[in-house]
Write a structure and sequence with these properties.
The complex is a heterodimer of chains A (201) and B (467). Chain A is α/β, with parallel strands linked by helices. Chain A has 8 helices and 8 strands. Chain A is 32% helix and 15% strand. The radius of gyration of chain A is 19 Å and the shape is globular. The two termini of chain A are 35 Å apart. Chain B is α/β, with parallel strands linked by helices and 467 residues long. Helix content of chain B is 32%, strand content 16%. In chain B, strand 3, helix 2 and strand 4 form a beta-alpha-beta unit. The longest helix of chain B has 17 residues. Chain B is globular, with a radius of gyration of 21 Å. Classes of the chains: A alpha/beta (201), B alpha/beta (467). The interface between A and B is large, with 57 and 78 residues. The site of iron/sulfur cluster (SF4) has 13 residues of chain B, from helix 12.
């Protein structure tokens, strides 16, 4: 996984609430057995008409947002299914951070496994960032994971919380499985104990 | 110190390692796997040269992509779907996990097969690369959905890296009125809390109305905990749970059963347990409900009218406007006037035998309305067999329903069972998102009895006034 350090990029505004994983990547694209290549189908049904033509007013089709790396979105982003295809599609498109007042649980944790930083901020802060994002490609937002801040193009900064373990993994691009494998003795010991306590499992 | 919740107890019994910052390795007792979210995980193992840590605790079944038409033995037409199902077949065999292929009568939706085969037991930790894993919480198991990276992590280590969630109690007091079912409870709760109301929590459902539900009904309630945003939903096990589990193929037997029962009986929240949030609904006030919009929180009693967008606040005004446009509805229209084209009865929410019995009760001796396409897709091959044995299938077919083979089908329409653009469906599934049941398809969620009544009348119908 790539390391996430500081990101300076264009932010696309998506003020809709409850953007669900079916919107992010419709099920037709879940049939892949690969993790890559989903970026062209990110937000597919909102982004293209049935003939495959771009819908001009969809935010990521607008010239100033085509290379956005940050999304600023309404409440409860990523609700719905557990499909990791959603962060795969975002990452493949080039989105590295999503900012909202809240995220669905599974989506939130899936992001970290794919080098994407989901940022939770209070409504007032998201409102300011949304306004900043609306300025288009002239505005560059700065996300600093180490310092845990988001800064608008005008220099206004907001601090966010992030779990220290998740932060550590993202900053260093660490692979969870390898880290867990180091704890194998604990797992083995647990299994032995559990086999005694709950042999029917 | 206050007592423990049921969630606390199951959690504590499964922590294999705790880091200083509170990050835990949670040991996983059962890992369910289906074809859509697992190929990349198995591929990851293969690339890293890792085996499946506990193949004996891993159960694979194809469900999302499988055709549900009677001729499915001839194979899957769509190439990508076929590749995915074939990949599961190869992976299950190569890594040596338990497997129920399409040709096996026990095949079905993973969340129906698990409990049916006795894989899901009280007090367990159960995960699956599927958000509706919450279903298994009905047994007093801690069960939740995970992403594909986590599927790979569980396959490789039989653990998950987790932070503990907060505790939320959802109590449904009193008795339900006639015509009101588990589906109405779970939708009513989401209507109350919103789709983000449970974010960060594990919900325990309790109260008289929950205790009164059958195991099937409890699974329906827990299934949709995820639509309320919760990580998991739980119901404390009781005699109904134990009766359901007993004798299932993978349930403990003999002395092991006795030992298990000793522990299972302790699986309830202590009276002085601490709750971070409590929601209480009166069972007798819950009405049969339907959804009108494109989020499961867009719930109203069937007796209500389509709401006006400006009756909401904040970001929800725009969302409601968009939803009404998408759904082709006008504010003020009585919900029971909404005409439907399709009826879908099935899914891991409502594809169990009890659901089919409810449907049969409503449609016996009646006919599906002219111009309505109605299908019933049992949740597993065994549910289908039982429905046939009980004579339900005959009732369905006489009434004009399509009687299908088991799978996810039109719940998410990854197989050919899809709505056409603009088509409107009365559905017993769990999600009414845009495009969920087919591009531009329109979904109204409801209970099996309500969907059955809609099939007969051709419009959304209050099952209590249906004769
Ligand atoms: S029936 Fe629907 S919700 Fe359940 S597992 Fe299948 S697709 Fe998911």
């Amino acid at each position: 996984m790539d390391k996430f350090e500081t990101l300076t990029g264009i932010a696309a505004p998506m003020p809709l609430v409850n953007i669900d994983t079916d919107m992010i990547i419709p099920k037709g694209f879940l049939k892949t057995i690969k993790r890559t290549g989903l970026g062209v189908n990110l937000f597919d049904e909102m982004r293209y008409d049935r003939q495959g033509n771009e819908i001009a007013d969809f935010v990521l089709n607008q010239p100033q947002y085509r290379s956005a790396q940050i999304l600023v979105a309404g409440d409860n982003f990523g609700c719905g299914s557990s499909r990791e295809h959603a962060p795969w599609a975002l990452a493949d498109f080039g989105i590295k951070s999503v900012i909202s007042t809240s995220f669905a649980d599974i989506f939130y944790s899936n992001c970290f496994k794919n080098g994407i930083l989901p940022i939770v901020l209070p409504q007032e802060a998201v409102d300011v960032l949304m306004k900043d994002a609306e300025k288009g490609s002239n505005a560059r937002m700065i996300v600093d994971l180490e310092a845990q801040t988001v800064t608008t193009s005008e220099g206004e900064s907001f601090s966010f919380e992030v779990d220290s373990f998740k932060k550590h993994c993202l900053l260093n691009g660490l692979d969870d499985i390898a880290l867990t494998m180091e704890k194998k003795p604990s797992i083995d010991a647990f299994e032995e104990k559990a086999a005694q306590a709950r042999p029917w499992v | 110190m206050s007592g423990k919740t049921l969630y606390d107890k199951i959690w504590d019994a499964h922590v294999a390692h705790e880091a200083e910052d509170g990050t835990c390795l949670l040991y996983i007792d059962r890992h369910l796997v289906h074809e859509v979210t697992s190929p990349q995980a198995f591929e990851g193992l293969r690339l890293a040269g890792r085996p499946v840590h506990a193949p004996d605790k891993t159960i694979a079944v194809p469900d999302h992509n499988v055709p549900t038409t009677l001729d499915r033995a001839k194979g899957i037409e769509n190439e990508e779907s076929r590749i995915q199902v074939d990949a599961l077949d190869t992976n299950a065999k190569e890594f040596g996990v338990h497997y129920y292929p399409v040709s096996d009568v026990r095949q079905g939706i993973v969340h129906i097969v698990g409990p049916e085969q006795g894989w899901t037991l009280p007090g367990m930790t159960v995960v699956c690369g599927d958000s509706h894993t919450a279903t298994h919480g009905a047994f007093g198991a801690l069960a939740h959905g995970i992403g594909t990276s986590e599927v790979e992590h569980v396959l490789a280590t039989q653990t998950l890296i987790q932070q503990k969630s907060k505790n939320m109690k959802v109590e449904i007091t009193g008795k339900l009125k006639p015509g009101v079912t588990a589906k109405d409870i779970t939708l009513a709760v989401i209507g109350e809390t919103g789709t983000a109301g449970g974010t960060g929590y594990v919900i325990e459902y309790c109260g008289e109305a929950i205790r009164d539900l059958s195991m099937e009904g409890r699974m329906t309630v827990c299934n949709m905990a995820i639509e309320g945003g919760a990580r998991a939903g739980l119901i404390a096990p009781d005699d109904k749970t134990f009766d359901y589990v007993k004798g299932r193929p993978h349930a403990p037997k003999g002395a092991q059963w006795e030992a298990a029962m000793t522990w299972w009986k302790t699986l309830k929240s202590d009276d002085d347990a601490h709750w971070d949030k409590v929601v209480t609904l009166k069972g007798e006030e819950i009405e049969p409900v339907v959804t009108w919009g494109t989020s499961p929180e867009d719930v109203l009693p069937i007796s209500a009218v389509v709401p006006a967008p400006d009756s909401f606040d904040g970001g929800k005004v725009g969302a409601a406007q968009r939803a009404l446009e998408y759904m082709g509805l006008t504010a003020g229209t009585p919900l029971s006037d909404i005409r439907i084209d399709t009826v879908f009865i099935g899914s891991c929410t409502n594809g169990r035998i009890e659901d089919l019995r409810e449907v049969a009760k409503v449609v016996e001796g009646k006919k599906v309305a002219d111009g309505v396409r109605a299908m019933i897709v049992p949740g597993s091959g065994l549910v289908r067999a039982q429905a046939e044995e009980e004579g339900l299938a005959e009732i369905f077919e006489k009434a004009g329903f399509e009687w299908r083979l088991a799978g996810c089908s039109m719940c998410l329409a990854m197989n050919p069972d899809q709505l056409a653009p603009g088509e409107r469906c009365a559905s017993t599934s769990n999600r009414n998102f845009e495009g969920r049941q087919g591009y531009k398809g329109r979904t109204h969620l409801m209970s099996p009895a309500m969907a059955a009544a809609a099939a007969v009348t051709g419009h959304l119908t209050d099952v209590r006034t249906f004769t």
